[in-house]
């Protein structure tokens, strides 16, 4: 009994110390099989620019508007993964989604197309969780990676970034990134 309490206590302590890291040592994101590149942009911030407060935990915490171009004609669905590689305890997932229709090449702030499945982020919530780095850290980088996929992905709604990465392996036609920064 005492050994069980110690083991459970250690497991809880490790989970609490982990903080803003969801345990991944690096990105779960696969590289596209073909090496094709698509363009990801946002009217809210430029590549390498500061993500506006509205799209962070200090504001409304709504996803930024996004736009995509250069999708291969064979694209069946889109997937997206937003990660903070600067998180204190390893790469932290802020948003993951899949099965977004490729005919919607721009998404307004706070919205995703009908039929899109959103997974559980590192905050243990479904959907978008905006940048929220520890106060006093240098600004963190937030990498928005969009994947053009050659099939519909069959994943549970609580799929992890690793699950998404495995599902994308061998089925990614092209990918592109947009990186923003945010500090507190």
Description:
The protein is of the alpha+beta class. 14% of the residues lie in helices and 28% in strands. The protein has helices at residues 2-18, 161-168, and strands at 36-37, 39-41, 66-69, 77-84, 92-100, 106-107, 117-118, 140-149, 172-182. The strands form two sheets. A six-stranded mixed β-sheet has the order 1-9-8-4-5-7, with helices on one face. A three-stranded antiparallel β-sheet has the order 2-3-6, with no helix packed on it. Residues 1-25 have low confidence and may be disordered.
Q: What is the CA-CA span between the terminal residues?
A: 44 Å
Quaternary form: single chain
Instruction: Tally the helices.
Output: 2
> Average pLDDT value?
87
The ordered string of helix (H) and strand (E) elements is: HEEEEEEEEHE
Annotation, overall tally of beta strands: 9
Strand content: 25-35%
Write out the strand line-up for the largest beta sheet, numbering strands in chain order: 1-9-8-4-5-7
Radius of gyration: 17 Å
What class, by secondary structure content? Answer: alpha+beta
Any descriptors?
single chain, alpha+beta, three-stranded antiparallel β-sheet, 28% strand, globular
């Amino acid at each position: 009994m005492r050994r069980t309490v110690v083991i459970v206590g250690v497991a809880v302590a490790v989970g609490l110390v982990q903080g803003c890291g969801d345990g991944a040592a690096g990105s779960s994101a696969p590289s596209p099989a073909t090496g094709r590149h698509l363009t990801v942009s946002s009217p809210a911030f430029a590549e390498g620019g500061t993500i506006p407060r509205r799209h962070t935990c200090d504001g409304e915490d709504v996803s930024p508007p996004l736009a995509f171009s250069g999708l291969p004609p064979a694209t069946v669905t889109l997937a997206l993964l937003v990660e903070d590689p600067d998180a204190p305890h390893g790469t932290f997932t802020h948003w993951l989604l899949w099965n977004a229709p490729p005919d919607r090449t721009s998404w307004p702030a706070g919205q995703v197309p009908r039929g899109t499945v959103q997974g559980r982020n590192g905050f243990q919530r479904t959907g978008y969780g905006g940048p929220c780095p520890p106060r006093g850290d240098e600004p963190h980088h937030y990498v928005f990676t969009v994947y053009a996929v050659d099939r519909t992905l069959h994943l549970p709604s609580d799929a992890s970034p690793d699950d998404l990465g495995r599902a994308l392996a061998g089925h990614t036609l092209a990918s592109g990134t947009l990186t923003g920064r945010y500090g507190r």
